[in-house]
């Protein structure tokens, strides 16, 4: 793997998130019935940060849930490493809520497809929206994100890596080339 | 037909022979043993770096015919024997029907005459139908050529009956071969009783069921002053009993099978029914006692207890599978690998166990390279390795305990009654 | 830690890490059963065959529910065999099921080692649901799962197993699983029901029930199958109750929070009094609930390992 370019650093990454937080509030006209659900793994930390920003802006704590989509994937057997089944931790009722799904990178759309299936098995939300830090294109399913931190055109032999302080020790988005 | 074998290491403890010699076979007999024989032979075998020894005498073989020709026949079993270097076998009488009458022995003799590729010696049953109730007519059967009696597969539970059998056998100079097992102590067991039976959740067979019956039969043999041969020793206590009896001067001899000195009960982990034998594979300590018994002479003979079974009878739930493994084709190689290579026995020592002693115990005129004797002999590459595989086995059944094992020692030629009987000639 | 086995035949073969992986995976699956929609698509399109040679309602149903909650299709085959009755062999049956393109065979059989024999002859996954006296790995896993849930850990616990140890696959699997995870196991039974050399499996043996209970954090009470006493080694039923049954009186002398387990179905008044079965220490119904989560985890893990092997072969 060869790092090609740094696309977001600490400041730009967090500025993007702050902007997304504002957009979410604007579109949903405040925090009423609003909840965030982060997709394991990095989506969880992004959802928590978004909730923090929304809290700073609105002085309201909105619920954040964690979604594990392992059991809903359609590519279980194709991925190299064995998926570890983690718990889904959503301790609020999602029915009639406006749910914003949060993930780090939007690529083929298959993860989001699985997440939608997982989410509707848990209840019947009023709406489901999608927020991602990076949209790198190459969709294989008719899925679109309402909120995008940064659009990054990529080629198929590149990988977009999101690093977050919580798991990786630093905040940055880099593009690397597969070898 | 003249066969000249050159430059082999000839081993025959019967005539105190162990050295590089040439050997000439003429008209079914060994006609000359000396250095540098010059003869106009039909076939000359170069046996440099090979062992030349008498053909083995396997005194415990189940050929299954008549009755279970799906498992083995006299023809297929004797071919397996030849491939393994065995030129004479003692056929056990637990066939269908059992060899318990003149009619049945004649039937068997007829099949042997027509189909056997090696020498087949006949054991009759001790009791009719091997039921343990009524003795067979030993005198009559002896007249038909029977050399031994055995209820192999079971033991005669009735003590008085067994005593009478020993006395009759002595009178008619027939060997009694005892499968020692006290059914009452068997507990329907299928593996050795101990930690392995506990781990596997299988019924265990105690060693007691074997050695208490050996003890009884030795006592009876002493009382009858009759020779007694104990089949397939598997455990330490049995070896000790034989040693004690021999010291006392009782005419007892004993054999063990290759699996008892080369495998232990742990081989059963995984439920491979090719490890299911009766008596069962025992502990490490027992296997080492068996090896000790071979080394110190307590155990006279190695016999294969060749027991063919079809895949349908073996490759099933362990507790339902038949007991027994085939062994004619692996007996020599397992013995070389486990006894010679480890230094436990030397070559003359092994030849005694697989040739000389069994021939002596059976009282047959076989098993030597002395000039003038029957030309039953084998040529062996002692260090050549081979892999035991189903495909390579010529026995009709493939239930070997050594499948997948690399063994040392390949039989290159088997000469039986003066003819090259192995390698087989393709009949086209 | 990755799961690489296509089969689950017993706990004896598993490493501590493998057992722990099943347990943590089961924790995630337990949640699925608490939802309104008790189903995930993880094994969608897969076929699970429950091949039961012995009557068993609870294990069969538990596997069926587990498979269905993973969206697998389930086929139940119940068949009676005996050594006398000649029928299709186990191997033939297995190959036929494989030819149906099933993915997992869950087998219950009265012969020890039947699952191992089957697994040697089919390429699809085999899960042992109890073979003779040998192993019943998913039962032990659910026992351990329940214990861990109740007491927070397994390592260092004192666990006593009481009853017919000799003929119990539940006992054997529990012994392997618990000892691998660091528990101290005591087995307690009348002498005739303690198998030879069992101490070599790393357990303490006692014939005294009060001794078995005195320092136990948990007791696993086995079902006494008096009707199956082929060897005539069982004590009389009343005598057994008097000397070995778990009663309130006996529990008074044990640790206050002792966890009482039973694989079911219970013989009330034989190995356990009704008061204990329904009492505060009993976790018997929780075991049933946890059984589903554990079996979901096992089915999921073996199916996935099998798929991975298949893909690997395809690539080769």
Describe, in plain words, how this protein is organized in 3D.
The complex is a heterotrimer of chains A (179), B (428) and C (316). In chain A, 28% of the residues lie in helices and 29% in strands. Chain A is globular, with a radius of gyration of 16 Å. With 179 residues, chain A is α/β, with parallel strands linked by helices. Chain A has one domain: Rossmann fold (3-Layer(aba) Sandwich). In chain A, helix 2 links the parallel strand 2 and strand 3. In chain A, helix 1 packs across helix 2. Chain B is an alpha/beta fold and 428 residues long. Chain B has 2 domains: 82 residues, Urease, subunit C, domain 1, CATH 2.30.40.10; 308 residues, Metal-dependent hydrolases (TIM Barrel), CATH 3.20.20.140. Chain B contains 12 helices and 18 strands. In chain B, strands 1, 2, 3, 4, 5, 16, 17 and 18 form an 8-stranded mixed beta sheet that branches. An 8-stranded parallel beta sheet of chain B has the order 6-7-8-9-10-13-14-15. In chain B, helix 4 links the parallel strand 9 and strand 10. The two termini of chain B are 22 Å apart. The mean pLDDT of chain B is 96. With 316 residues, chain C is of the alpha/beta class. Chain C folds into 2 domains: 146 residues, Aspartate/ornithine carbamoyltransferase (Rossmann fold), CATH 3.40.50; 151 residues, Aspartate/ornithine carbamoyltransferase (Rossmann fold, 3-Layer(aba) Sandwich). Chain C is 41% helix and 15% strand. Chain C is built from 11 helices and 9 strands. A 5-stranded parallel beta sheet of chain C has the order 7-6-5-8-9. In chain C, helix 3 packs across helix 4 and helix 5 crosses helix 6. Chain C is globular and about 55 Å long. Chain C starts with 15 loop residues before the first helix and ends with a helix.
């Amino acid at each position: 793997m060869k790092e090609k370019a740094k696309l977001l650093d600490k400041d730009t990454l967090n500025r993007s998130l702050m902007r997304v937080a504002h957009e979410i509030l604007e579109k949903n006209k405040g925090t009423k019935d609003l909840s965030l659900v982060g997709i394991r793994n990095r989506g969880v930390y992004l959802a928590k940060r978004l909730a923090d920003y929304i809290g700073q802006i609105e002085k309201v704590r909105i619920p954040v849930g964690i979604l594990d989509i392992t059991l809903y994937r359609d590519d279980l057997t194709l991925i190299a490493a064995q998926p570890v089944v983690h718990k889904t931790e959503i301790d609020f009722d999602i029915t009639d809520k406006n749910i914003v799904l949060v993930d780090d990178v939007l690529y083929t759309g298959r993860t989001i497809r699985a997440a939608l299936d997982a989410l509707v098995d848990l209840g019947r939300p009023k709406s489901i929206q999608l927020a991602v830090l990076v949209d790198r294109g190459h969709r294989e399913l008719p899925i679109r994100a309402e909120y995008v931190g940064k659009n990054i055109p990529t080629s198929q032999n590149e990988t977009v890596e999101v690093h977050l302080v919580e798991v990786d020790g630093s905040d940055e988005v880099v593009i690397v080339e597969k070898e | 037909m003249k066969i000249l074998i050159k430059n082999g290491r000839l081993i025959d403890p019967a005539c105190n022979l162990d050295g590089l010699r040439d050997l000439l076979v003429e008209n079914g007999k060994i006609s000359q043993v000396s250095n540098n024989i010059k003869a106009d032979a039909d076939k000359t075998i170069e046996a440099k770096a090979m062992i030349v020894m008498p053909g083995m005498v396997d005194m415990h073989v189940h050929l299954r015919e008549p009755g279970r020709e799906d498992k083995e026949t006299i023809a297929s079993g004797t071919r397996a024997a030849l491939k393994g270097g065995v030129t004479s076998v003692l056929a056990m009488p637990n066939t269908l029907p059992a060899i318990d009458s003149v009619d049945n022995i004649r039937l068997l003799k007829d099949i042997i005459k027509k189909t056997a590729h090696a020498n087949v010696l006949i054991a009759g049953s001790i009791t009719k139908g091997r039921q343990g109730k009524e003795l067979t007519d030993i005198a009559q059967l002896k007249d038909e050529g029977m050399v031994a009696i055995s209820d192999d597969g079971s033991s005669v539970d009735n003590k008085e009956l067994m005593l009478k059998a020993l006395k009759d056998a002595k009178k008619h100079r027939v060997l009694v071969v005892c499968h020692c097992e006290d059914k009452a102590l068997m507990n329907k067991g299928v593996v050795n009783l101990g930690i392995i039976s506990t781990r596997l959740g299988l019924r265990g067979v105690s060693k007691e069921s074997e050695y208490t019956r050996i003890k009884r039969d030795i006592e009876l043999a002493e009382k009858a002053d009759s020779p007694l041969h104990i089949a397939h020793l598997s455990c330490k206590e049995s070896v000790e009993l034989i040693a004690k009896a021999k010291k006392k001067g009782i005419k007892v001899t004993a054999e063990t099978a290759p699996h008892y000195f080369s495998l232990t009960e742990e081989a059963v982990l995984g439920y491979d029914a090719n490890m299911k034998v009766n008596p069962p594979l025992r502990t490490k300590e027992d296997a080492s006692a068996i090896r000790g018994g071979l080394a110190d002479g307590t155990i006279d003979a190695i016999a294969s207890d060749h027991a063919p079974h079809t895949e349908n009878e073996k490759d099933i739930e362990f507790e339902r599978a038949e007991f027994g493994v085939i062994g004619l084709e692996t007996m020599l190689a397992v013995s070389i690998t486990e006894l010679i290579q480890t230094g436990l026995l030397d070559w003359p020592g092994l030849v005694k166990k697989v040739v000389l002693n069994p021939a002596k115990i059976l009282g047959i005129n076989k098993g030597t390279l002395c000039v003038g004797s029957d030309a039953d002999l084998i040529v062996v590459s002692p260090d050549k390795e081979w892999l035991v595989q189903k495909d390579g086995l010529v026995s009709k059944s493939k239930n070997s305990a050594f499948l997948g094992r690399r063994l040392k020692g390949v039989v290159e030629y088997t000469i039986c009654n003066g003819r090259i009987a192995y390698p087989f000639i393709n009949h086209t | 830690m990755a799961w690489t086995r296509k089969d689950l035949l017993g706990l004896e073969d598993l490493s501590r890490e493998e057992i722990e992986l099943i347990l943590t995976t089961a924790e995630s699956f337990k949640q699925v059963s608490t939802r309104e929609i008790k189903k995930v698509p993880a094994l969608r399109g897969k076929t699970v065959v429950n091949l039961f040679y012995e009557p068993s309602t609870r294990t069969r149903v538990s596997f069926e529910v587990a498979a269905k909650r993973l969206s697998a299709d389930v086929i139940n085959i119940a068949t009676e065999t005996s050594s006398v009755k000649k029928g299709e062999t186990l191997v033939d049956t297995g190959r036929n099921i494989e030819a149906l393109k099933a993915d997992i065979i869950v087998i219950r059989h009265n012969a020890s080692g039947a699952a191992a024999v089957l697994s040697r002859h089919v390429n699809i996954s085999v899960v042992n649901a109890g073979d003779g006296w040998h192993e019943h790995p998913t039962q032990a896993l659910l026992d351990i799962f329940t214990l861990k849930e109740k007491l927070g850990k397994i390592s260092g616990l004192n666990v006593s197993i009481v009853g017919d140890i000799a003929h119990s696959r539940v006992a054997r699997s529990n012994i392997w699983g618990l000892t691998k995870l660091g528990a101290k196991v005591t087995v307690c039974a009348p002498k005739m029901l303690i198998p030879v050399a069992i101490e070599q499996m790393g357990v303490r043996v006692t014939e005294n029930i009060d001794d078995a209970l005195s320092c136990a954090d948990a007791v696993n009470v086995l079902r006494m199958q008096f009707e199956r006493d082929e060897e005539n080694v069982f004590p009389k039923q009343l005598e057994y109750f008097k000397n070995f049954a778990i009663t309130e009186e006996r529990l008074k002398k044990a640790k206050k929070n002792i966890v009482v387990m039973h694989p079911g179905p219970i013989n009330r008044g034989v190995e356990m009094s009704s008061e204990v079965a329904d009492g505060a220490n009993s976790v018997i119904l929780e075991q049933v609930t946890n059984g589903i989560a554990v079996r979901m985890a096992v089915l999921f893990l073996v199916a996935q390992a099998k798929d991975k092997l298949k893909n690997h072969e395809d690539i080769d």
